[in-house]
Specification:
The chain is α+β, with helices and mostly antiparallel strands and 398 residues long. It is built from ten helices and twelve strands. It binds 2-deoxy-2-fluoro-alpha-D-galactopyranose.
Length: 398
């Protein structure tokens, strides 16, 4: 069973239906669901055309949508509302298609708006006004891809309602365009792909160059193991400079090596030709991380969780030392989890805050959680949010 069938989701859906009717005075035409993700390994490799290995988690965005009709007075406006922290009467953000301009929509509404904008760029597609209500339990700013969940829920809803017949790859590419051009975050294609293409109890092995995927079984139950998320509650954002700077360094390194992307570099020795020491270190992470993804897929297929754990920790070291995207809080979480017996641990997602993950034995959940909480307390950090996640099914009609 996946979370989409769970009692909790059914209850959330019923509440969303009711709230939609209350806010907009109509029933929604349907509710669509898109999960957040954890990236097991393969960080910042997506925009280098490399390999990633994320999985969708049992936390998701739900989007209730209704297309406006001739009978709606303001039938050309796009109305967005969210249940998030809004009490009984959430405010409605209304914009016209004329106002649907890159970087012009503030706050969370930028994400569904970005998707409408991206779809409208397609030849032959002309969307009308809609009413949309969002409910999400993917923690915001925690590196678990809350914004992509929202974009993906919106695109699967609109694809269904307008019978656009988009493939999952097209939807991933369109949401990437939405994020890059409309929201202004220069992100890759991993997060939306994970939300769209994942399968329950599997990780998604994605080649970001060919967009080929393989579902890799996660042998967690066999080993009585779980994935623990340690959200540092230090919010991160990809619109800020750090992410773009890493991307620019990778492009600089690729140019120095005269290759299209760092994906084409197979051996670390080839990096000697890069003169700039920072670009060289960044490229070192990408080249070694691509290799670690392939090795992790192999180890998962062999059922060798110890080997997976080692690769996760090596990935963390590489992000801390070569890519320099970790933070003190993430390092403390990872070290405390490892010292308390984790099989492996690493920061996950874009970095500069957000979450780390630990691969642990189920019997160690309390011990590891407690150790991380104590380490945060001693360091004077805010209390982390710690919870286990399961690998869930990708987006669809709820
Ligand atoms: C963020 C981005 F959105 C992804 O595209 C990816 O680059 C990730 O950071 C790092 O692996 O989540």
């Amino acid at each position: 069973m996946s979370i989409s069938d769970s009692k909790e989701t059914t209850q959330r859906m019923a509440a969303l239906h009711q709230k939609f009717a209350k806010i907009y005075g109509h029933q929604p035409e349907g509710i669509w669901r898109a999960p957040g993700r954890v990236n097991l390994i393969g960080e910042h490799t997506d925009y280098n055309m490399g390999f990633v290995l994320p999985f969708a988690i049992d936390k998701n965005a739900l989007v209730a949508v209704r297309r406006k009709t001739q009978l709606d007075a303001d039938r050309q406006t796009l109305d967005f509302a969210s249940t998030y922290g809004s009490g009984e009467h959430p405010p409605i953000t209304s914009i016209t298609f004329d106002e649907l301009v890159p970087r012009a929509v503030p706050g969370w509404a930028a994400y569904p708006a970005a998707v409408l904008w991206a779809l409208n760029q397609l030849e032959g597609v002309e969307l009308g006004g809609i009413q949309l209500l969002v409910d999400s339990d993917v923690p915001v700013g925690s590196g678990l891809s809350s914004s992509h969940a929202l974009e993906v829920a919106t695109i699967v809803a609109l694809d269904d309602l307008y019978e656009l017949g988009l493939s999952k790859v097209q939807m991933a590419q369109l949401t990437q365009r939405a994020e890059n051009e409309f929201v202004g975050a220069p992100t890759g294609i991993m997060d939306q792909s994970a939300s769209l293409m994942s399968h329950a109890q599997h990780a998604l092995f994605l080649d970001c160059h060919s967009m080929e995927t393989q579902a890799v079984p996660l042998p967690l139950a066999q080993h009585d193991a779980v994935v623990l998320v340690m959200d540092t509650r230090v919010e991160h954002s990809h619109v800020d400079g750090g992410y773009a700077a890493r991307r620019a360094s990778c492009e600089q390194a690729a140019a120095a090596l005269e290759v299209q992307s760092l994906r084409e570099v197979n051996a670390v020795a080839e990096l000697e030709a890069i003169e700039d020491p920072v670009a060289k270190r960044r490229a070192m992470h990408i080249v070694t991380e691509n290799r670690r993804v392939l090795d992790t897929v192999f180890a998962l297929r062999e059922g060798d969780l110890e080997a997976v754990g080692k690769l996760l920790y090596q990935s963390h070291e590489s992000m801390r030392d070569d890519y320099e995207i970790s933070s003190e809080e993430l390092d403390v979480a990872v070290e405390a989890a490892m010292a308390a017996g984790a099989i492996g641990a690493r920061m996950t997602g874009g970095g500069f805050g957000g979450s780390a993950i630990a691969l642990i034995k189920r019997e160690h959940i309390d011990k590891v959680s407690q150790a991380v909480r104590e380490a945060f307390d001693q360091a004077g950090y805010v209390e982390p949010a710690i919870f286990t996640v399961i690998a869930d099914e990708g987006a669809g009609k709820a």
